[in-house]
# Entry
Amino acid sequence: MSFRNNGLWRIGQKGWMGTMRTLFKRRYRNSLSNLLFVSFLVMFLLIFTISSIFSYSGILNILKNNAKENSLQQLKQYDYNLSIFAGEVDQASRQLVLDSELQNLIDYKNMTEIDRVLQMEKAFKDFAQMLSNYKFIDSISFYGEDGFVIRASSNSNDILYESSSKQNQFYRSEIYPVVKSKALTLTWFGGFTAQDFNIATSNTLSKEAADSRPTYYISAARSIFSNSQTGTIVINVDMTYFTDIYNHASDNRNREMYLVDGSGKIVSHSDVAKIGNQGTIPLQFLSAANGGDKFSSYEHDKKQIMSYKSSSFDWILIYEIPLSEFTKDIFTLRQIVTIMFIFSLVFAAILSKYWIRKVTMPLNRLTTVMKKMELGNLGLTLDLDVRNEFGILIVQFNKMSKSIVELLKQKETIEEEKRRIEIGALQSQINPHFFYNTLNTIKWMAIMVKADNIVESLTTLGDILHPMFKKNDLLCSIREEIEYLENYIKIMNYRYAGEIKVKISIPNDVMECQILRFLLQPLVENAIYHGLNSRNGGEIIITAEEQNHEIVLFVYDNGEGMSNMKVQEIKQILMSKGSEDSQQETGIGLMNVNRRILLHFGDPYGIQIESEQHRGTKLKVTIPKVQKS
# Structure
């Protein structure tokens, strides 16, 4: 097959868009090859898209998990650094608390002027030594219970004493009552500025107060006790130094790392403008962190936010990474996947178009032949050697095409036979009427000679024959069937001299349910001829009951019964649904009834038999409950 003939040449001539337009023309829209082609492309796009989405999500999750693991290790290291720093500040505060000068200054108002000067000089000397030893300490303040305040920084030493009342705003801040309630415990605070600890008078403003840009501190406060009086020492740590402890490795400007308190307020940040503001951590995750979760990670506002609860501070370390940092790592991969997708789609479209046309060629040939047959050209066949399912279809089509001609000939024969059968059926409808009218004539002749037993027998026989040609319904009530059965028993008792006893026990509500006409009589006849015949009589019991929307009828006889081998043989025949061969061997009584039940009501219903030799037989008939409509 040449390149021009296999379809590739046409795609090259028309172009890709021209081929796609051709697919949707009305005359090609329902073509199987085009439907398969479009279906293949749709499945290809769907599978490729789903796999790309899962791959993209998987790679993104791997990057996030790796970043989460790396970030967790960093956060643990930073928390360790903060713990060491907190220990140093705690040690410095303990040295100051144990300093006797500060303990003496608690009772400042009861000291002499000379003692005050000496104690303050010693305290400022200790403060200066502490500022020299710990470069990260920006200032140290002492607040007495009576309003006496001293503050030392690298720039100045300030003193404030308001004996009448505590005028300094520190006593009205949140730090003072919290520190007093926690006794000797070192308590940390963040988000306070130099102005919050300023004690300079209005005539002597400190440098921090004059500075237009606030200087933020991380503050550590501890109480001092002496003679039932309390003082408070506050160590203010330089914010820049404190931030570098946990944020020195964050060289990416898009990433942020900061500390928030239990309410979510930022207490430490490399950007001082954000200190004191509310962080981006949602309340539900803030509650989880406060509730005991050491580490958590979540996405919020296009950021991956990780939180780590500090072991030395009642604060939470927050690390924010923009999601764009993860996606940029797979941008190149996405471009490669896109190029592969376009190339694969074009190649798959060309290859599938060629292959589908080749595979469906036998089907197209078969369709052409079938259209010719539709126009009346019967008996056409295909001569193609195809070794697949299409080959089987072609073989079967050839057989079908040859059979059609034979069937047409047979149809003429069947139609002729059908006409003959219909004529016979019409003729057979005349016979019961003739038979019934003849019985009436014989009955009147018996009446004239006063042969009462003959009259009664003929009357009963007429009552039995009457439903056969007067009523054509398939169903009748159980009551009607019992009335018909009673006439049959009456005739049988003429033969057996009244030795056949029949007991019928059926509730009135069950009596009105529908049953197949002439269903019980063959069963009773079977009991008489095969069970009671050798005994010249016996007893037959007929009962019926409703069970789970089904009618179950029982026919018992106390006759000879059957051997177990015979019972199994009959059961096997009943299970085989009464084929014609089995009926010829065993009679049509039970088999006829069982087959009628199966044909009318379906497989779950039918006859079951139980019998013991010399002890009788029991038949169980199950049919659905049907009320007369």
Observations:
- The mean pLDDT is 77.
- The longest strand covers residues 216-226.
- The longest helix spans residues 32-97.
